[in-house]
Amino acid sequence: MLEQIAAALDTPVSSIFALAEGRGEKAKLPDDFTEDDTGDHAAEMQQLRRSFRELSPANRRVAVELLKVLERMQA
Question: What is the value of pTM for the model shown?
Fold first, then answer.
């Protein structure tokens, strides 16, 4: 399964391991992002933030990467 995720991310499996071990790049919020920047999706954003906070740092990085994959798939 990890190989499939790596292929979907167009990245080597070793990069995923590096992220999980805290040796990879960190997720960065856009410079113009504010906590109130939720528009019509306030409930979904609140749910995402609540769930995200419950994750370990390694799983937070995985979650960000999975969201990037979903974003690319819909384009």
Answer: 0.47
- Could you tell me the end-to-end alpha-carbon distance of the chain, in angstroms, rounded to an integer? 23
* 6-49-14 Cα angle (round to 5): 20
Number of structural domains in the chain:
1
Report how far residue 48's alpha carbon sits from residue 33's, in angstroms, rounded to the nearest whole number.
15
Domain that holds residue 67: 2-74
Please give the structure tokens belonging to residue 56: 């370990």
Q: pLDDT tens string for the chain (75 positions)?
A: 778 777 777 777 787 777 777 665 555 555 665 666 556 677 788 888 888 888 888 888 899 888 888 888 887
